[in-house]
Write a structure and sequence with these properties.
- By secondary structure, the chain is an alpha+beta fold.
- It is about 30% helix and about 15% strand.
- The chain has 3 helices and 4 strands.
- The protein has a two-stranded antiparallel ribbon with strand order 1-2. Strands 3-4 form a two-stranded antiparallel sheet.
């Protein structure tokens, strides 16, 4: 896959990702599509219409990779949107 990167496990599922948590468009294409990375423009436009996380301006337009991977998991039916948040107990709106 991607050369010259360290890899680590993240999340409860032990998913292995490259250590840069913020990645540029080219690296995101390679991580997502591998050898088919040249097709990224068409794939990205489809994913953007489906709610793909936007690049973060605060880190010079890079994508936060864990958010992108969570988006793909939800899109492929591997996780629910509310699965990202731990249950914190019943609501208590009283004094």
């Amino acid at each position: 896959m991607v050369k010259r990167l360290d890899y680590r496990a993240i999340g409860g599922k032990g998913l292995i990702i490259p250590t840069p948590l913020y990645v540029d468009d080219n690296l995101l294409a390679e991580i997502t599509l591998g050898e088919k990375a040249p097709h990224w423009r068409e794939v990205r436009s489809t994913l953007e219409r489906q709610g793909m996380p936007r690049p973060r301006l605060t880190v010079r337009g890079l994508y936060y990779l864990p958010a992108f991977l969570s988006f793909l998991d939800r899109r492929e039916g591997l996780a629910r949107r509310d699965a990202d948040y731990a249950e914190d107990g019943p609501d208590n709106f009283g004094p």
